[in-house]
Amino acid sequence: MSDKEQLRMGIIGSNGRMGNVLISAIKQAGHLHMGGVDKDDDLDALASNCDILIDFSAPAALEDNLDIAMNHALPIIIGTTGLEERHHFLIDSAAQDIPIMQTGNTSMGVTMLAYLVEEAAAKLGDAWDIEIVEMHHRHKVDAPSGTAKLLGEAAAKGRGIKLSEHKDSGRDGITGTRKIGDIGFAALRGGSVAGDHDVIFAGDEELMTLSHRAENRMIFARGAVQAAYWLSRQKPGRYNMRDVLGL
Ligand SMILES: NC(=O)C1=CN([C@@H]2O[C@H](COP(=O)(O)OP(=O)(O)OC[C@H]3O[C@@H](n4cnc5c(N)ncnc54)[C@H](OP(=O)(O)O)[C@@H]3O)[C@@H](O)[C@H]2O)C=CC1
Ligand SMILES: O=C(O)C1=N[C@H](C(=O)O)C[C@H](O)C1
C-alpha cells in the first residue's frame, strides 16, 4: 500500500459470509485485521485496539455497535441490511459525534448503477413504470434487499418523490391495476446467488433494464475496505458509497 496509512480494522459479524471475505480484503489492501466479534462477543475490547469498525452482522446489533463506536470515538462502516426507520434515527443521531458510512451495497458497480437509475428516472418520468427485481442466496433473511431499497430511493429521488409513499412490494392476490408513479419490488431467493439486481423501466412498447450482477462477495468487501480508509479521513457525519466514490 506504499505511502497510505495502515489502519487497524475490526469486524462485527466476523464469522459470517461477509466477515470471512473482509479479512482477505483488509489484508490485500495492506491494512491490519485486528480481529472480529459475533453475537455475545466483547466488542468493547476489540474497539480499544482499532482505528475503525466494519459491521456486516444483524440489525439487532446496531444500537450497541453505535454506542461502542461513539464511546471509543471510532468511525464505523455499516453494511448490515434489514434496517428499519428506528435504526436510521440511531445512525443520524450517532453521526453527530462520529463519521458513519451506511449503505445497502458497498460495491463500485451498484454505486454507479444507483447514479444511473437516478438519472434515468429523472429523464423518463412517470410514463415509464419502474420495477426492481432482486435475487439472492437461500440464506438471506431480509427482503427487499438493502440494495433494492437504495436503488428504489435513487429512482424516487430522480422523480422527486418519496419512496415511502410510492413503494409497492409483495404483490399477491387481486392487487388492482398498477398505480401510476409507484415503484415496484420483487424479491427472489434461492441457491448461492451473491446478489443480482435489475431495475426495469417499462414504457409503452419499449422496456429498458439497468442491471448489476455480483459474481462473488469480494466486490462488497473491497468496497467496504476502500470506504473505511476514506471514512477515517472524514469529520463526524453520515455518508454513503456515493460520497466515497464521488458519484
Ligand atoms: N452492504 C453490502 O454491501 C452488503 C451487505 N450485506 C449484509 O451484511 C449482513 C451480513 O451478511 P452475511 O455475512 O451474509 O450474514 P451471515 O449470517 O453469514 O453473518 C452474520 C454474522 O453476524 C453475526 N451476528 C449476528 N448477530 C450479531 C450481534 N448481535 N452482534 C455481533 N455479531 C452478530 C453472526 O454471528 P452468530 O453466528 O454468532 O449469530 C454472523 O457471524 C446482512 O445484513 C447482509 O444483508 C451482505 C453483503 C453485502
Ligand atoms: O445478504 C446478502 O448476501 C447481500 N446483501 C446486501 C443487500 O441486502 O442488498 C448486498 C448484496 O446484495 C448481498
TrEMBL record:
Location, primary (coarse class)? cytoplasm
Residues that bind (S)-2,3,4,5-tetrahydrodipicolinate: H137, G146, T147
What Pfam families does the annotation carry?
DapB_C, DapB_N
The positions annotated for binding NADP(+) are K39
Chain residues that bind NAD(+): G13, S14, N15, G16, R17, M18, D38, G79, T80, T81, T103, G104, N105, T106
- Judging by the UniProt lineage, the source's domain of life is Bacteria
Any GO MF annotation of the entry: NADP binding
Against NCBIfam families, the record matches this protein to:
dapB (TIGR00036)
The record's section on HAMAP family has: DapB
What functional role does this protein have?
Answer: Catalyzes the conversion of 4-hydroxy-tetrahydrodipicolinate (HTPA) to tetrahydrodipicolinate.
Assembly and oligomerization:
Homotetramer.
Q: What is the protein named?
A: 4-hydroxy-tetrahydrodipicolinate reductase
Q: Which organism is it from?
A: Sphingorhabdus lutea
Q: What is the lineage of its organism?
A: Bacteria, Pseudomonadati, Pseudomonadota, Alphaproteobacteria, Sphingomonadales
Gene expressing this chain: dapB
